[in-house]
Design goal:
Layout: H1 15-41, H2 46-49, E1 56-62, E2 68-75, H3 81-87, H4 90-98, E3 116-120, E4 126-129, E5 133-134, E6 142-143, E7 152-157, E8 164-169, E9 175-180, E10 190-193, E11 198-202
Antiparallel strand pairs: 1-2, 3-4, 3-11, 5-6, 6-10, 7-8, 8-9, 9-10
Length: about 200
Amino acid sequence: MFGQNGEESGGNSAGQPDLRRRVFLASMGAALGGALLWRWRKPYTIAQAAKSEPGEVTIVQFSDDGKRLERVKIAKVVKTEEEWRKQLPPGVFEITRHADTEFAYSGKYWNLHDKGIYRCICCDNALFKSATKFDSGTGWPSFWEPIAKENVREISDNTLGMQRIAVACKECDAHLGHVFDDGPRPTGLRYCMNSASLRFVKAV
């Protein structure tokens, strides 16, 4: 028999708080374990796939006003973990060098509408221009194409039980974000980037 509040009539309800506490702790433990597993896997997936090795890459150079200059072959920017740590703030380091992700609506560029270009925070390579930026409703700055296809590289990302395409800077292998096929015309793509991976240069 059960009373009006759902507890068994004549029974001992003192165990209910303990049961709820155990369920809560178990849920928190599972969530924490999943987060730790995700963080443990990342360096062996995206970040390792984008690990910089000495060599040359071909990119297209742009002026700060967005003018296309020339297609050049240059040496990749390769630094040690310690050198990147000294150059970058902790959060930016984790995002660009260890493929972390900033929280939605927390970055400084998701709602920026100024005209200009976006460069890599690590090496200054030109990546996107404001003319291709759109409001994706996701809380991350989104673009329907890079400033030049030569300036980014795409990496298969199978973390979190999903198949996605990560996007990295071609010049220094900084993790930028992911690209999806639900963007607007003319490309139908959505380059969903981390603000922390970018440096905006306002048009004058």
